[in-house]
Amino acid sequence: MSDFGNLFEGFEARAAEERFDALFRSPGLRIERIVSTGQAGDWYDQAHTEWVVLLSGSAVLRFEDEAEPRMLRPGDWVTIAPHRRHRVEATDMERPSVWLAVHLSD
Amino acid sequence: MSDFGNLFEGFEARAAEERFDALFRSPGLRIERIVSTGQAGDWYDQAHTEWVVLLSGSAVLRFEDEAEPRMLRPGDWVTIAPHRRHRVEATDMERPSVWLAVHLSD
User: Which residues lie closer than 8 Å to B74 by C-beta, 6 or more apart?
Assistant: First the structure.
């Protein structure tokens, strides 16, 4: 694993699939770059805390315990507690949505 | 501590001092937003690993064990091993330089 890189390079802007790249790992911690290109996601119910920030594009994030989804724009971050059910309902169709996720396990 | 926010809000663009905001803490982990507004830094020799990314502005990062400093632009990230001496030689004078740092201790 490299010890440097650029979050906004090394991906296709119109990829058919979401892309996941691990940037750093240590016991109990994984830092990951995610690039969404219009995909939505399934419901997640994670055993660990996740801290995540959207850095480009836009996304619609829904928490099961909230009435309305959150519209995320670049810079928006959220700490997701364990077992707080959530899903990404939509990501930007025009531009890649780059996320940085810090997972407190793996 | 809030469980959401925006990395690019909540600071003065022309502050005299660098600004540090803890966004998340758990045992062994601290996620911090740093906003530099033209400041340089002292040499750091940290006991813990730091993963850091520059998200806006620009910066010059020097490692003592490298001949040339690194010119950082938005998206550039680097994993800094424990006790690898480094300093920020300069940050952008025109725009705020927003960093996200993940510290593997505290």
Answer: A8, B54, B55, B56, B57, B58
Q: How far apart are the first and last CA of chain B?
A: 15
Instruction: Indicate the helix (H) or strand (E) that contains B33.
Output: strand B29-36
Residue with tokens 């109990």: A28
* Nearest neighbour of A4 by CB, restricted to B7, B9, B78: B78
Please give the model's pTM, rounded to 2 decimal places.
0.96
Say which DSSP state B35 is in: E
A11-70 pLDDT tens trace? 999 999 999 999 999 999 999 999 999 999 999 999 999 999 999 999 999 999 999 999
CB B47 within 8 A of CB B105: yes
Contact (CB, 8 A) for B34 and B19: yes
Place of tokens 């940290």: B46
Nearest to A104 among B3, B29, B73 (CB): B29
For residue B26, give how far its alpha carbon lies from the nearest alpha carbon of chain A (Å): 9
Minimal C-alpha gap between B78 and chain A (Å): 4
